[in-house]
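Example 3.2
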Amino acid sequence: MVFLAYLFTFLKNAIYGTTAFFTDQLDGNGVDAIEILALRFLLSFLVLWLLKTTKLVKIEVGIKDVFKKTEKHKFIKPLLLTALFSPVIEMFLKQRA
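Structure, written as tokens:
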């Protein structure tokens, strides 16, 4: 089980690392940051939806977990906020540079 955690961490970092290359290519072609963000979020949604529907990944986070304060789910809200705002902040900082 630990091997899978390392494997998925490696894959996540590899995918996240290559986005810098692809966003530079898109930015050079005149694509707006909002369009890049929309594409990233759409692709993320589709991949997660596909993984969940094929039952390769078990996802048990609902909207109630964001607002409910329990010991079990105390890190879900910061994790979801980070997942949402990390690419947004990255794109807008890249546009300003």
